[in-house]
Design brief:
The protein is an alpha/beta fold and 231 residues long. It contains 9 helices and 7 strands.
Length: 231
């Protein structure tokens, strides 16, 4: 049940009824920067990766970007919400992509008997049970496989924090009025970003599960970060 886990309940509260507008809102709300972040993630997937797992794939934005970059590889997209997967399936049919499999599952619960060369995610870390997720990812990665996790971060300096707060205040005022289905996330997301400790928790989980070459790359004035590690 969603109510039994506060993380799942939060995702349900944030994203219910937003699948049809997700792509547009994310692009407009980030001034197109989300596309740049997705390109950065895809660019760090090892060139020879034959099997790639995209966790919390949503409407398939990152999954399709990966599939285009790796047309001869097998891509698996895992998403918690059927509402979002329905839109991802439509995109795959429209683009005639046949190297992608979509799976309805919570990221922490997904298992694969066949290992992956790379596992990636965007906007998952702040919602996830990271010790469990990283342990399971370690088991599903080939030796030398790469884990890439990207999410929003809270800025480190007062000047950037002031801009960050102004940005979300604008979203709450304008976006909330135009798209009522997004009001919950416009108000709840900044609180979550400010309160969550996903970055040090993820770094610690990677080290505890034997990952090496653990790196953190901050993007766009510390608006988000990519954390990577090699099994």
């Amino acid at each position: 049940m969603l109510e039994s886990d506060p993380r799942l309940a939060l995702v349900e509260r944030f994203f219910r009824g937003t699948g049809g507008t997700y792509d547009t809102v994310v692009n407009v709300a980030t001034f197109g920067i989300d596309r740049l972040w997705k390109r950065r993630i895809v660019s760090q997937i090892p060139a020879g990766a034959g099997r790639i797992l995209d966790l919390a794939c949503g409407t398939g934005i990152s999954t399709i970007a990966i599939a285009r970059r790796f047309p001869n590889s097998r891509i698996v997209g895992v998403e918690l919400r059927e509402e979002y997967l329905a839109f991802a399936r439509q995109k795959l049919r429209r683009h005639r992509m046949h190297n992608v499999e979509l799976v309805l599952s919570r990221a922490e619960d997904y298992r694969s008997a066949e290992p992956f060369d790379c596992i990636s995610s965007s906007y998952l870390a702040k919602y996830a049970d990271l010790p469990l997720l990283v342990r399971n990812c370690s088991e599903m990665l080939k030796p030398g496989g790469v884990l890439l996790m990207h999410d929003f971060t809270f800025p480190p300096s007062p000047a950037l924090v002031a801009l960050w707060r102004l940005y979300f205040k604008t979203l709450q005022t304008i976006g909330g009025a135009l798209l009522p289905a997004w009001r919950e996330i416009y108000y709840g997301l900044p609180r979550l970003i400010e309160e969550t400790r996903w970055l040090p928790e993820l770094q610690r989980a990677l080290l505890e599960n034997g990952f090496g070459d653990v790196r953190t790359q901050y993007l766009t004035a510390y608006g988000s970060a990519i954390v990577s590690g090699r099994r």
